[in-house]
Amino acid sequence: MRRLTAVLVASLLALVISTGPAAAHAKLESMTPADGSSMPAPPTKVVLTFNEPVGSNGTQIQVKSPAGVNVATGAPQVLDSTVTQPVGAMIEAGRYQVEARVVSADGHPITVSASFTITHAGHAPDAPPVDPTAQPPSNSNTVTVVAMCLVMLVVVALAIVIVRRRPAR
Ligand SMILES: [Cu+2]
């Protein structure tokens, strides 16, 4: 009899543990850019879509560059079941890791771990415009940096032209 009681208690506990919290927690349904995807141009935002509305308090999203720099800028915007995180310039090509902490409707936090890869580095948008009439700076390091920026600008411009020229699907 004691054994039967123990088995009953154990089954009840198992039932509560397995059906209780799991049913109520938000789950990531999709991400834009898609988890595991690879693209040439850096996105300007990361959008997480969950299977149910999530809370706006306590939401934290980090988008880490291959070197570990967080490129997320500003607060994530929560609208029903989607969370939009603006991201700044992605000046490194490679894999970006998305680490999100989102609060489920029942108040419990969940964490999301996903990633995407960009094959072409972006360019810092707040870089000063290049003045073609400017005197070449005396510092050779500065010249190198400016030259690299110019090359990046050309690459990005080319990428935009190529993407625009592709016929619509
Ligand atoms: Cu919960």
TrEMBL record:
Cellular compartments annotated: Cell envelope
Record's signal peptide: 1-26
InterPro entries: CopC/D, CopC_dom, Cu-Rt/internalin_Ig-like, Ig_E-set
Keywords: Copper, Membrane, Metal-binding, Signal, Transmembrane, Transmembrane helix
Parts of the chain that traverse the membrane: 143-163
Location of the CopC domain: 25-118
PANTHER family per record: INNER MEMBRANE PROTEIN YEBZ
The protein's name in its UniProt record: CopC domain-containing protein
Lineage: Bacteria, Bacillati, Actinomycetota, Actinomycetes, Propionibacteriales
